[in-house]
Amino acid sequence: LNRGFTEMHCMSGHSNFVSCVCIIPPSDLYPRGLIATGGNDHNICIFTVDNPAPLYVLKGHKNTVCSLSSGKFGTLLSGSWDTTAKVWLNDRCMMTLQGHTAAIWAVKILPEQGLMLTGSADKTIKLWKAGRCERTFTGHEDCVRGLAILSEMEFLSCANDASVRRWHISGECLQVYYGHTNYIYSISVFPQCKDFVTTGEDRSLRIWKQGECAQTIRLPAQSVWCCCVLDNGDIVVGASDGIIRVFTESLERTASAEEIQAFENELSQASIDPKTGDLGDINADDLPGREHLKEHGTRDGQTRLIKDNGKVEAYQWSVSEGRWIKIGDVVGSSGATQQTSGKVLFEGKEYDYVFTIDVNESGPSYKLPYNIAEDPWLTAYNFLQKNDLNPMFLDQVAKFIMDNTKGQTLVNTSTQFSDPFTGAGRYVPGSSSGSNTVPAADPFTGAGRYVPGSVSNAVASVGEADPYTGMGAYQSAAAKTENIYFPKKEAVTFDQANPTQILGKLKELNGSASEEQKLTEDDLIILEKILFAICNTSAETPTAQQLQTLWKAVNWPEDIVFPALDILRLSVRHPTVNENFCSEKDHVQFILLLLKFLNPKGKQANQLLALRALCNCFVSQAGQKLMMQQRDEIMTQAIELKSGSNKNIHIALATLTLNYAVCLHKVNNIEGKAQCLSVISTVMEVVQDLEAIFRLLVALGTLISDDTNAVQLAKSLGVDSQIKKYASVSEPTKVNECCRFVLNLL
């Protein structure tokens, strides 16, 4: 009777070692699911269950791919030594998560859509939402190696600091678990509960129940690289001896007596190096003989060392069998005391001493770690604080430390003592940068003054009964069933202008410009010509020379440039001007200029007009081409303006996103759509203004129309749950109608 597993077939597709494996759950297309593997050759191979060759290979990482996690709707998350994680949908990379400063050893997709976790050798864990970093979790003191999901709100991490931490996704560390004596490589959760298992570099598999280490299983290999809990509760571990072992609680699946005996023999022949500290400090001269094994152990997994004919052997107590099982020979331990072998590991850190302190007979005992370089009084104080013990014991504990370290203190006690209540990093009220105290008021005031983006010209005119203008907002019940909102085919522009006001402001500010930047009377006449040619759509076409004057004006200092920027915003709609600024030869300076004005620390008027100018670039072929080439830069800069409180800026930002959606709908570029979806999702979180929301909804609808991949991606980012609330907005009706059309697609 074979109770084990048999090899079905061997898959190969990597040119070097395979470092991670993950199952992609069944879908309509692949009813048996898929298998993804990440390799040292920087690639990810995707296999079907019945073919030894890959279905396809995902290329893009620049170093070993060492972690994979699959999500709903066909998404796959990968982590690599190249410090990035990537999100894949089917055979395409959708987005790259950048922010860690060292290898990403662990990745997990959370059950709540759009949320992803990455754990890195930079000692941090990051939470990502729709491709942007939302939060960084700090606490581990060495590389984070593994992650496991407990629920929508909680997860576990394990690290090279020999600790496991339980976190709430809000950022709080809820608990730290200690037990391993060396690196922890892997962690896996039991189905339907919070118990879990871990494996590491201390030759052990540990089973944790109710927050305690309930069982330790030793293995005849130094490194136990990975563990996983099967649906039936069995535990599978893979170790450095190339063997996969399965442990079970079920009697009918237990291995035969011969197999168990063989495992025990293998374990008893293992040689354990005392330097690893897996068994604590060892002094061979002080060890008892074999008679020591006649006493029963006190708990499962307890280890005991004995000396037999000059050899040191290690045994572990098994409660279920009521006997000591040999787990190996300790080699090279002729009198290796703490002093010669160095430090003791406690809670994943090295110390000169770790004492066990019994405060009273009946209570528990406490571990007190101590380094010779520390102040015994401060150590005693911190120990009492940490374990919630009576401060009356202070003298006693400090004296205990001094007696037991034979006075080996190295410090002058008075200077080292820092007040434990006011140590560095304490909270000082009012020290946080209060950036969002007052909603920023419009920088220009006073009656009849030209104010860019004041309410009078906030909406872009797009024709009569168009939902963007709010003019003639239609209410006919018959039209309700027809989707007039998306996919949008043409760019939305900002056309409203008052040329006389703009020129008046320009002349006024020209007076305060420095000598070399002042415009001459001729310059001002040229700008007036341009403005009236553009606004009254006269037959005249602005010449290249006239545009040089405009270029001179838009390079004015930040505090006076806005009327010139407004002329640029209007001019760029003209095909000739669009061609002039967006063509191959001049576009670099043009884009750099507009990006400079998008700086979140800059003036709001400039931010607004730069965004509107970018939106208006989309009217002509040259502008569209340039905007698509520079999409990554422009979007990354523009999204930083989401956090302000100016609704006109929000509307312009939403319009820019919408114009990108219009272009992306035509060319069907899935990476571009992924970036756009991420922007929509991120901006939706903060924007209140319903006009901005409406434009984002149209952008979303346009992006996902006629594209099943984009629909899948939007679902995996959790956009549907984000927009549901807008289906019930009563005024303006265009918001809820458009929202419902989008939800139908999702």
TrEMBL record:
Domain PUL: 484-745
GO biological process, one term: proteasome-mediated ubiquitin-dependent protein catabolic process
Positions of WD repeats: 58-88, 97-129, 177-209
Signal peptide: none
All copies of domain PFU, residue ranges: 316-415
One CC-aspect GO term: nucleus
Top-level taxon of the source organism: Eukaryota
Listed PROSITE patterns: PFU, PUL, WD_REPEATS_2, WD_REPEATS_REGION
Protein keywords: Cytoplasm, Developmental protein, Neurogenesis, Nucleus, Repeat, Synapse, WD repeat
Xref: Pfam families: PFU, PUL, WD40
GO molecular function, one term: ubiquitin binding
Intracellular or extracellular location(s): Cytoplasm; Nucleus; Synapse
Annotated function: Plays a role in protein ubiquitination, sorting and degradation through its association with VCP. Involved in ubiquitin-mediated membrane proteins trafficking to late endosomes in an ESCRT-dependent manner, and hence plays a role in synaptic vesicle recycling. May play a role in macroautophagy, regulating for instance the clearance of damaged lysosomes. Plays a role in cerebellar Purkinje cell development.
Family as reported in the entry's similarity comment: Belongs to the WD repeat PLAP family.
Name of the protein described by the UniProt record: Phospholipase A-2-activating protein
Organism: Struthio camelus australis
